[in-house]
């Protein structure tokens, strides 16, 4: 054990060693990116178990993501072997679930309780809103959900909300609603995601014996990414650590990037007060990045006011390293082309694709790079979300387009016929399927016929007819409208975009951005068919093995804690990064959080950073002038090597600065057409006396399941007009009647 202990700590610098070996009492490691905080935490755990100061199940370690938990467990296993399995190691949420599952009755739940996903949660909320007679126009469900979530993040039960907070949330009516919502959840033996921490804290507070059991158990508590904990998580930790006080938190205030999810960087400042005598360790040696990258990151983050302040040094052995490559290009297409060429060049120089990452501000930005990587044949993976063309909203939109081009695509039909909800219930859809089988026709063609009959209830029939009419109208536009305009028309007129606009879940704005990105993407193709062919090629490419080396694509938020040899940071333009939203929100706080994101991005790199910005972006079917991000100017010139496409600065960004957000017509704008085309009345019933393929003839008596007996008064193809004895004149499908 002693020999192993030596091995464990021998590679550490003195401050790191201190953080590892000061096992008793509270310790706060506060230091910048890449200084070895996560490594210290893992080593500390190994050190404790190696001594041993505690058994594995007496140690509690918290990470920010499940992936980080997995990694930490693997590292730990490599250091001390299979004991690593028994450590309580996971995210706050997974650890809370584990505790609640052991004593569900303590918080009014029963064993096997369910954890609602966002959809279920919204549905429940809307039901309750109706009962409580909330006006969803004034107080949308999503807003209420946000308020409740905020209260939960702060660990407030309905009866414990401080007055000013209650007022800020909408007053007693909203508080009452929160009460009812919680009660309903308990009735359903369910909880939502935010409940996990809240209920755990409540359980500790109301059941001292349960708390005591955990306090006795967890002799050592370790927390990574401490700067992004919220109040509930903080209380949870404080309660658990109260007995032994052996808690070690590591964090970096400059990397606090989740305030929008309730994280409070102030928790770092309070640590000292809550755990008097806490040892504060500062690690200043960075082992990850070159001095050049470090200087650039430090210089940039110095523009933030609200920070604790610290400097980073490289260990001194590393060479200065390559300058940060800042590249200005004319357009987003050029940006993707240039970036992927750089990746190829690096690959030729011997870099592994696994060591490269493209980090973007928002999810929609991956599309351009994905396409370019695919055409070039470079393997890639998107972390933290599906690839662009696999995202739900994109697949939905594509299904509409597929159906336009091939009306017999039943899968596409099923995907979109009731999306957005058109009030087409199970019964209607079943009817459609039965009819399609009876007619031997695709679903869409069947729907087109059914709406001319009385087989469906009037409401369903009207809804389906709207859908069919829409499709017919858009079909007529296919060869006459610019593709971006066409796709937008379909997505808008179908009500699909509106569905996401109404949805106020945290993912909804990103989905709308992805749709906007899609409009831009189709603009690169001549015809819809060409575009869809391209997509099927893209999708085929998805099958490539995840084991193969590949470039990583992800958002800056998802990149926290990770490191790569080479990091690409595209899209450094005002209104993209910093984001439009952060700029609209006046005040420094939002902007400073964006800057911390930039800091996180830069400090992910070991050797090289490439930053780029384009002078114009295609937004819908217009090119929009863009301005380089202020963060570009905040990089120290001596760390930067700037290269721009020829002529880019000739015209001068000074001028374009005045044209902020203005658009120029690229020649398409003038050709925009009205998208409303009124079709001929395709629903009129042609009363022609002719023998149909159905084999029924005029005047024949028939029987229909729903309408009973009647006499045929008109025949057309597969449809009949029947004068029913009781139900009156109806149009029905021939397949649904039998000779009487
Ligand atoms: P972040 O703030 O980004 O989460 P961090 O402070 O957690 O960073 P780590 O990820 O633990 O930093 O370490 C950064 C890199 O430096 C890792 O590759 C790690 O293995 C290495 N490292 C840390 N300490 C040492 C050391 N004493 N000697 C050599 N390498 C080290
Ligand atoms: Mg870390």
Automatic annotation (TrEMBL):
Keywords: ATP-binding, DNA-binding, Helicase, Hydrolase, Isomerase, Nucleotide-binding. Gene3D superfamilies: 1.10.10.160, P-loop containing nucleotide triphosphate hydrolases, PCRA, domain 4. It comes from the Bacteria. The keyword Cell membrane does not apply. It catalyses: ATP + H2O = ADP + phosphate + H(+); Couples ATP hydrolysis with the unwinding of duplex DNA by translocating in the 3'-5' direction. Pfam families: PcrA_UvrD_tudor (PF21196), UvrD-helicase (PF00580), UvrD_C (PF13361). GO terms for cellular component: cytosol; DNA helicase complex. GO terms for molecular function: 3'-5' DNA helicase activity; ATP binding; ATP hydrolysis activity; DNA binding. Its EC number is 5.6.2.4. It is an enzyme of class 5 (isomerase). GO terms for biological process: recombinational repair. ATP binds at residues 31-38. The keyword Hydrolase applies. Residues 291-561 form the UvrD-like helicase C-terminal domain. Residues 10-290 form the UvrD-like helicase ATP-binding domain. CDD domains: DEXQc_UvrD (cd17932), SF1_C_UvrD (cd18807). Has both ATPase and helicase activities. Unwinds DNA duplexes with 3' to 5' polarity with respect to the bound strand and initiates unwinding most effectively when a single-stranded region is present. Involved in the post-incision events of nucleotide excision repair and methyl-directed mismatch repair. PANTHER family: ATP-DEPENDENT DNA HELICASE SRS2 (PTHR11070:SF2), UVRD / RECB / PCRA DNA HELICASE FAMILY MEMBER (PTHR11070). Belongs to the helicase family. UvrD subfamily. This is DNA 3'-5' helicase. It comes from Caenispirillum bisanense. The lineage of its organism: Bacteria, Pseudomonadati, Pseudomonadota, Alphaproteobacteria, Rhodospirillales.
């Amino acid at each position: 054990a002693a020999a192993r202990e030596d091995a464990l700590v021998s590679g550490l610098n003195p401050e790191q060693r201190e953080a590892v070996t000061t096992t008793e009492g509270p310790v706060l490691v506060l230091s910048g990116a890449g200084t070895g905080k996560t490594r210290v935490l893992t080593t500390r755990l190994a050190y404790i178990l190696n001594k041993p100061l505690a058994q594995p199940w007496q140690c509690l370690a918290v990470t920010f993501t499940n992936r980080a938990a997995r990694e930490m467990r693997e590292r730990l296993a490599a250091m001390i072997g299979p004991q690593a399995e028994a450590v309580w190691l996971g995210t706050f949420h997974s650890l809370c679930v584990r505790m609640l599952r052991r004593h569900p009755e303590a918080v009014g739940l029963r064993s096997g309780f369910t954890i609602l996903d966002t959809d279920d949660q919204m549905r429940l909320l809307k039901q309750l809103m109706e009962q409580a007679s909330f006006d969803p126009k004034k107080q949308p469900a999503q807003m209420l959900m946000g308020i409740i979530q905020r209260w939960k993040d702060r660990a407030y039960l309905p009866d414990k909300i401080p007055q000013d907070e209650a007022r800020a949330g909408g007053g007693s009516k909203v508080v009452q609603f929160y009460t009812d919502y919680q009660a309903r959840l308990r009735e359903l033996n369910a909880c939502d995601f935010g409940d996990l921490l809240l209920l755990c804290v409540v359980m500790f507070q109301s059941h001292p014996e349960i708390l005591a059991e955990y306090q006795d158990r967890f002799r050592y508590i370790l927390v990574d990414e401490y700067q992004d904990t919220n109040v509930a998580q903080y209380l949870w930790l404080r309660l658990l650590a109260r007995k032994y006080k052996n808690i070690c938190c590591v964090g970096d205030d400059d990397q606090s990037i989740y305030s929008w999810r309730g994280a409070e960087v102030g928790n770092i400042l309070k640590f000292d007060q809550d755990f008097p005598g806490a040892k504060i360790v500062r690690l200043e040696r960075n082992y990850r990045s070159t001095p050049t990258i470090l200087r650039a990151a430090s210089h940039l983050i110095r523009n933030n006011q609200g920070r604790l302040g610290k400097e980073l040094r490289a260990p001194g052995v590393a060479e200065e390293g390559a300058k940060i490559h800042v590249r200005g290009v004319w357009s987003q297409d050029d940006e993707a082309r240039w970036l992927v060429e750089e990746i190829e060049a690096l690959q030729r120089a011997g870099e592994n694709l696994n060591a490269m990452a493209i980090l973007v501000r928002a999810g929609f930005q991956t599309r351009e790079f994905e396409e370019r990587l695919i055409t070039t044949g470079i393997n890639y993976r998107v972390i933290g979300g599906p690839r662009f063309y696999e995202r739900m909203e994109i697949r939905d939109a594509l299904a509409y387009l597929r159906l336009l081009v091939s009306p017999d695509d039943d899968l596409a039909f099923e995907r979109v016929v009731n999306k957005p909800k058109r009030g087409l219930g199970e019964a209607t859809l079943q009817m459609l399927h039965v009819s399609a089988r009876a007619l031997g026709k695709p679903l869409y063609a069947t729907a087109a016929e059914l709406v001319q009959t009385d087989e469906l209830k009037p409401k369903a029939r009207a809804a389906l007819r709207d859908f069919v009419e829409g499709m017919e109208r858009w079909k007529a536009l296919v060869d006459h409208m610019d593709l971006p305009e066409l796709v937008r028309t379909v997505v808008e007129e179908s009500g699909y975009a509106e569905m996401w606009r109404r949805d106020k879940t945290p993912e909804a704005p990103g989905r709308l951005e992805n749709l906007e990105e899609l409009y831009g993407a189709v603009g690169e193709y001549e015809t819809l068919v060409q575009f869809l062919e391209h997509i099927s090629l893209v999708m085929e490419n998805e099958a490539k093995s995840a084991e193969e080396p590949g470039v990583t694509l992800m958002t800056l938020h998802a990149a926290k804690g990770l490191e790569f040899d080479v990091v690409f940071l595209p899209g450094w333009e005002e209104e993209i990064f910093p984001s439009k939203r952060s700029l609209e929100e006046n005040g420094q706080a939002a902007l400073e959080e964006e800057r911390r994101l930039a800091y996180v991005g830069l400090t992910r790199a070991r050797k090289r950073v490439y930053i780029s910005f384009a002078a114009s972006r295609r937004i819908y079917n217009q090119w929009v002038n863009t301005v380089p991000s202020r963060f570009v100017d905040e990089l120290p010139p001596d760390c930067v090597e700037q290269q721009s496409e020829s002529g880019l600065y000739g015209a001068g960004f000074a001028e374009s600065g005045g044209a902020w957000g203005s658009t120029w017509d690229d020649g398409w704008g003038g050709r925009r057409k009205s998208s409303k085309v009124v079709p001929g009345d395709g629903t009129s019933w042609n009363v022609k006396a002719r023998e149909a393929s159905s084999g029924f003839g005029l005047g024949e008596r028939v029987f229909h399941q729903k309408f009973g007996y009647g006499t045929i008064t008109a025949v057309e193809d597969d449809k009949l007009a029947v004068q029913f004895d009781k139900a009156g004149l109806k149009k029905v499908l021939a397949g649904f009647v039998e000779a009487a």
